[in-house]
């Protein structure tokens, strides 16, 4: 599913969703270029990674994930137990 919004400056934001209704890609255009943010989910439908524009065109190795991406971890009960924000780690 795809939806788009154009702001008062003429910049367009397009959201792509999977069959579960979860956002998988947000594409923003600033009038000059598209920038993409990807959302990846685990097998339980929980948000696992957010890949921002800075990392979208790079190989997603552990170093890139730690330095540029947002990561979420869950326990066996489905409770979020860890968030990692671009080279910063914090437990909940």
Largest sheet: 8 strands, antiparallel
Class based on secondary structure composition and strand pairing = mainly beta
Number of strands: 8
> What's the overall average pLDDT, rounded?
90
H and E order: EEEEEHHEEE
- Strand-residue fraction? over 45%
Poorly predicted residue ranges:
none
Number of helices: 2
Helix proportion: 10-25%
Instruction: Report the span from N to C terminus.
Output: 33 Å
Broad shape: globular
Q: How large, in whole angstroms, is the Cα Rg? A: 15 Å
The oligomerization state is single chain
Strand order in the sheet with the most strands = 1-2-3-4-5-6-7-8
Detailed description of the structure:
With 92 residues, the chain is mainly beta. Helices cover 12% and strands 50% of the residues. Strands 1-2-3-4-5-6-7-8 form an eight-stranded antiparallel beta sheet. It is globular, with a radius of gyration of 15 Å. The N and C termini lie far apart (33 Å). The mean pLDDT is 90.
How would you summarize the topology of this molecule?
Layout: E1 2-6, E2 12-17, E3 23-29, E4 34-41, E5 47-51, H1 53-56, H2 62-68, E6 70-74, E7 80-85, E8 88-91
Antiparallel strand pairs: 1-2, 2-3, 3-4, 4-5, 5-6, 6-7, 7-8
Descriptors:
8 strands, 92 residues, single chain, mainly beta, 2 helices, eight-stranded antiparallel sheet
Provide a compact summary of the structure:
By secondary structure, the protein is mostly beta strands.
């Amino acid at each position: 599913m795809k939806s788009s919004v154009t702001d008062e400056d003429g910049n367009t934001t397009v959201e792509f969703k999977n069959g579960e209704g979860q956002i998988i890609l947000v594409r923003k255009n600033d009038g000059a270029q598209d920038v993409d943010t990807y959302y990846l989910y685990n097998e339980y439908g929980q948000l696992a990674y957010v890949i921002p524009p800075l990392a979208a065109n790079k190989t997603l190795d552990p170093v890139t994930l730690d330095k540029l991406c947002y990561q979420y971890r869950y326990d066996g009960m489905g409770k979020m137990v860890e968030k990692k924000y671009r080279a910063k780690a914090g437990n909940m």
